[in-house]
């Protein structure tokens, strides 16, 4: 008996006692391969010696400093490191403690940008039905999954939702990628016109949709069209790379592969690699200038923002990724993982789609391959797969069933960047057995 409240009240999770490299060990001594990085968090695996050394040194030097009094060298160095390779135009990083906080900061920066520039009527937020942006009330309203929101209506904030770019489900027979990208992006323009262009503050999207949909990238020039539409109507573009960012898809920032830069960009998860809770909101020069030349203040903050321990973890993770050229390994091993999934599941009668970028890959399960009919949500196929995988010592990240905008069940794989070909063969075999 414990007084710790588990989210799954009647089926508490197993108890982990240690983790090293890509393996967890539980209280019974059983080992698990971490093929999901938790929730796409553990990019360097567990107990990485360089990160541990950096954390020990930081703990001895300076564990905590409230940002109302002090900045720190690690927080500034991490911000400089992130901005040095960030998409064009992003000029500053705001350090918080996780993904939801990063999204909240981005939403508030967007709103404050318009009050500082004399357009307070621009307050609508548009997002996509197939999305997850966090669990705090603003982020919850922004995300597309209704089942997470249902118990909390009326919401404090109202966001507006459009269809995602989801080729497997929505691209029509005979429609080219170029035409589909244009059609899907057109949803945003239609929504902006419906709401009234001068009332819209921002559009929020994940470049590669993670938790709600299983590694769904956009097709063709979708995000270039989205960027152009935002520019045409003066709407800020917020990209949420909390899950897909920080190297997960093979480039440090996922949107590099879409050839665009946002006005605001959120990161977390892989930023701290699980060693510390950390998130960041990167903002463009235009937003920074509006604050700097206006009130001189960002009207938002948290007690643990810019935490030196978290910054030290983030900095150490970034240094290892650069030194060990791990983005190349994400690209190479991502291709191996995709081939493995293709040969294990390419002909499987209940796998309808295999998709993703880099070490962010997923399979989508269907009751019928030809019609793409999903399984009855009541069967909770994703939950069965998770349990069967855990029995076989494999951690994967299945989701699905009733999430709004997602038709079925999927299994997401996001192993650490240090994964090898032999590890991936083992992961694929265990997943195949579990499925
Ligand atoms: N945005 C995205 C895209 C996410 O995947 C998540 C977490 N799954 C969040 C925001 C929220 O992050 P956190 O759980 O750290 O608050």
TrEMBL record:
Q: Which UniProt keywords apply?
A: Aminotransferase, Pyridoxal phosphate, Transferase
Q: Which Pfam families match?
A: Aminotran_3 (PF00202)
* Cofactor (UniProt): pyridoxal 5'-phosphate
Q: Cytoplasm: present as a keyword of the record?
A: no
Question: A GO molecular function for this record?
Answer: transaminase activity
| Entries under CDD domains matching the protein | OAT_like
Q: Which family does it belong to?
A: Belongs to the class-III pyridoxal-phosphate-dependent aminotransferase family.
What is the protein's name according to its record? Answer: Aspartate aminotransferase family protein
Q: What is the organism field in this record?
A: Roseinatronobacter alkalisoli
